[in-house]
């Protein structure tokens, strides 16, 4: 693969489909300082996926993702280029190896928005943890990281296990207790999302975990946690003193 040429082709196709009005709306919604071209997410994904149809090697995949991630316009990162970088990694995630969690971490640390972090957390980091369960020890370190987006990644990386019916209940409980006092909205929301997804498959576990913690759990987390619980269980938790 000609990585440089492929990255240039992806950017050319993205610019052809750009919509300045959409770009301004999206930039405002995300409160972004990046350059926005104004390409809908499905179109970004289609263009990105076309770049890896030829089945690149692991090294080529990582180089392409980094090349797209590093695209700038006037010295500022380009939103759609970063989304495309994550898309190519997600599409060929099966090529990634345990050591590549370090590359994912670099991208998360270079992110400043949920729009990049959440996709990386679930599709890249979470996918690696599913395939290589020993990597979950990395999440144990991340849960206490000073950078809020790394802590959010540690929580959301548990989602693939929940969705595939193999939840890491020990870490969900331990991470929940570690973060239950967080004041960061994005951390509170992430914990709530994991509990909400788990409640679809194991509502009794969620009820038993949330109940004793009602005096410390945030309203944001609780609202998400009870959203998919059976109505009677949700009502009891909401009414509890």
From TrEMBL:
SUPFAM superfamilies the record matches: ARM repeat
Signal peptide coordinates: none
Alphabetical list of InterPro entries matching this protein: ARM-type_fold, DNA_alkylation
Gene source species: Actinomadura bangladeshensis
Protein name (database record): DNA alkylation repair protein
Pfam family, one: DNA_alkylation
PANTHER family: ARMADILLO-TYPE FOLD (PTHR34070), DNA ALKYLATION REPAIR PROTEIN (PTHR34070:SF1)
Xref: Gene3D superfamilies: 1.25.10.90
């Amino acid at each position: 693969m000609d990585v440089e040429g492929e990255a240039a082709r992806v950017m050319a196709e993205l610019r052809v489909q750009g919509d300045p009005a959409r770009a301004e709306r999206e930039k405002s919604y995300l409160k972004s300082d990046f350059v926005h071209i104004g390409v809908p997410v499905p179109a970004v994904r289609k263009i990105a996926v076309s770049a890896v149809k030829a089945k690149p090697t692991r090294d080529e995949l990582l180089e392409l993702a980094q090349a797209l991630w590093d695209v700038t316009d006037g010295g500022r990162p380009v939103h759609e280029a970063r989304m495309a970088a994550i898309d190519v990694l997600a599409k060929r995630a099966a090529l990634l190896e345990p050591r590549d969690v370090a590359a994912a971490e670099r991208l998360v640390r270079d992110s400043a928005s949920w729009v990049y972090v959440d996709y990386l957390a679930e599709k890249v980091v979470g996918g690696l943890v599913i395939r290589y369960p020993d990597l979950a020890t990395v999440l144990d370190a991340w849960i206490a990281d000073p950078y809020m987006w790394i802590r959010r990644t540690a929580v959301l990386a548990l989602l693939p296990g929940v969705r595939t019916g193999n939840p890491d209940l020990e870490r969900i409980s331990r991470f929940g207790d570690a973060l239950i006092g967080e004041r960061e909205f994005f951390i509170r929301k992430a914990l709530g999302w994991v509990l909400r997804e788990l409640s679809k498959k194991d509502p009794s576990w969620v009820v038993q975990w949330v109940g004793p913690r009602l005096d410390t759990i945030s309203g944001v987390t609780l609202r998400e946690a009870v959203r998919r619980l059976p109505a009677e269980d949700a009502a009891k938790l909401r009414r509890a003193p």
